[in-house]
Design a protein that fits this description.
Length: 411
C-alpha cells in the first residue's frame, strides 16, 4: 500500500529531478513510513529555489530514494491574492481528491490548510487517516503578525477538525497539544525531538565545569539560544532586555550567544539601543553536527519562545546536562522544573532568574536537565512510533482485506 503524506512544507527539485527538503525531514524520517508502506507521495508546496542553485540546495536534505516522489500543491501563502483566490483552493482540492483514495494510506501533518482539506476529503470518503500534531497554529499565528491574529481562530478550528476526525493521532507533546486539540481516535505521544543514548560522563563533565566557575570569577557566564534570529516569536529580544536590566544594576557577568540563521539586523540594533552589544555574540547558522560542541561550550541554555511544540533545541541542551530556563508555553512546562519557567515575554522575570543563579543551583539544574532528557532517547521513542505506525498500517490492511472479501462474495 502506498502512503500519501500531506503537509505545508516546501520541496525543491534539481535539474536531475532529485528531491530536496528542509531540515525538518530527511531520508531517516521518511524511512519510518517506508518501513510500513511501499511508496511515499509527498504533497507539499514547491520551494522557490532555482534547480541550478547548488548553494541553496546544499543547505537542504537531498532525498534519492526512488520510492519517494513529490506532488506540488498551489501555494496559498505566496500572496494575499493567492490566499483569497477561490480558484487556488479549488485546484488544491482537485489535486488532493486525485491522490486520496481507499487504496492508499493517508497521513496528515498539522497544521496546514492542505491537511485540513485532506481531512475533509477523508471524512467524506470514509477513509481512515493518521494525523500528526507537531505544533499549535493558534500560538504560531497569534504571535506572528496582525494578519496572523486574524487567521489564528480559523487555523485552530481547522486543526481541531483534523484531530477530532483522525482514526489515529500522534502528538509531539505529552499534554499541551492533546488538551487544545483532542483526538477522536487512538492516540499516542511521540516527540519528534529524538536524542542519542545519553552518557552519564557528559553530566559529570558538566558538573566539573560548573564547579570550576568558582575559580574563574571574572569569566562571563555563557547563555545560549538556538533559533532563527529573524523570527520574532523565538523571543531572543526578551533575553536582551533582561541583560540590559542587569547591566543597569552593574551586573555584566553574562554573555549571550545566539545560534541561528536569518537577518540579525533587528536584534543587533536592539542590542545597541540597550547598550549591551558587548554582551551579545551572533554565531550564525550552525550545522547540526556542531551543535553539541556549541552546547558544551555554554553554561546555561534559555528558550524564551512565544511559540513552541516540544522544543528540539531545548531537549538537546538538556541532554548535555545544561542548566536550562524557558518560557511557559507549549511543551516547555513538560520539560522544565517550574522554578526554571518564566511567563512568556516577561523580561523582568528572566532578569530575576539570571540574577539568582549560583554554581550550587546550576549543579542541581544540570542533574534535573540530564535526567529529564532521558525520557526522550531515540530508541525509546522510535520503538513507540514504530508500534503505532505498524498498528495503523495493519488496521488499513485488515480493512482492505475485508473489502476484497465482501466484493468476492458479491461476485
Amino acid at each position: 500500500m502506498d502512503l500519501v503524506f500531506v503537509y505545508g512544507d516546501r520541496v525543491a527539485l534539481d535539474r536531475e529531478g532529485r528531491i530536496y527538503i528542509g531540515t525538518s525531514f530527511s531520508q531517516k524520517v521518511f524511512d519510518r513510513y517506508l518501513e510500513h508502506f511501499d511508496h511515499l507521495i509527498l504533497m507539499m508546496r514547491r520551494a522557490g529555489v532555482n534547480p541550478d542553485d547548488r548553494e541553496t540546495l546544499s543547505g537542504m536534505n537531498r532525498i534519492e530514494d526512488p520510492r519517494i516522489r513529490a506532488v506540488f500543491m498551489p501555494d496559498t501563502t505566496a500572496s494575499l491574492k493567492n490566499f483569497a483566490d477561490p480558484g487556488v483552493r479549488i485546484r488544491i482540492r482537485k489535486i488532493l481528491e486525485e491522490y486520496i483514495c481507499p487504496e492508499r494510506a493517508v497521513i496528515l501533518r498539522t497544521h496546514s490548510y492542505y491537511s485540513y482539506v485532506a481531512a475533509g476529503i477523508c471524512v467524506r470518503k470514509k477513509i481512515p487517516y493518521l494525523a500528526e500534531a507537531v505544533g499549535c497554529p493558534w500560538d504560531a499565528l497569534f504571535h506572528h503578525s496582525l494578519k496572523g491574529r486574524l487567521l489564528a481562530p480559523f487555523a485552530a478550528a481547522q486543526m481541531r477538525f483534523c484531530m477530532r476526525h483522525a482514526s489515529y493521532a500522534m502528538y509531539v507533546t505529552r499534554d499541551f497539544l492533546q488538551k487544545r486539540y483532542p483526538a477522536g481516535g487512538i492516540s499516542v505521544s511521540v516527540s519528534d525531538a529524538e536524542l542519542l543514548s545519553l552518557d552519564r560522563e557528559v553530566l559529570e563533565k558538566r558538573k566539573e565545569r560548573i564547579r570550576a566557575l568558582e575559580t574563574e570569577p571574572s569569566r562571563r557566564l555563557r547563555i545560549g539560544t538556538a533559533g532563527d534570529v529573524q523570527v520574532a516569536y523565538k523571543g531572543q529580544r526578551f533575553v536582551l532586555q533582561a541583560l540590559a536590566g542587569l547591566k543597569r544594576k552593574g551586573i555584566c557577568s553574562f554573555e549571550y550567544r545566539l545560534a541561528g540563521g536569518g537577518d540579525r539586523k533587528g536584534l543587533e540594533s536592539l542590542a545597541v539601543r540597550l547598550g549591551i552589544e558587548d554582551m551579545v555574540v551572533f554565531e550564525g547558522l550552525m550545522p547540526h553536527e556542531k551543535i553539541y560542541d556549541w552546547l558544551d561550550y555554554l553554561d546555561l541554555y534559555i528558550q524564551p519562545s512565544q511559540v513552541e511544540g516540544l522544543s528540539r533545541a531545548l531537549l538537546e541542551a538538556m541532554s548535555r546536562g545544561l542548566p536550562a530556563f524557558g518560557s511557559d508555553v507549549g511543551g516547555n512546562p513538560e520539560l522544565l522544573d517550574p522554578s526554571c519557567l518564566h511567563r512568556c515575554g516577561d523580561a523582568g522575570e528572566i532578569e530575576r532568574q539570571l540574577e539568582a543563579l549560583t554554581p550550587e543551583r546550576m549543579l542541581v539544574l544540570a542533574e534535573k536537565s540530564f535526567c529529564r532528557a532521558g525520557d526522550y532517547e531515540k530508541d525509546l521513542l522510535e520503538n513507540r512510533r514504530r508500534k503505532f505506525l505498524a498498528r495503523f498500517a495493519a488496521d488499513l490492511s485488515s480493512q482492505q482485506d475485508r473489502k476484497i472479501g465482501r466484493q468476492g462474495e458479491k461476485t
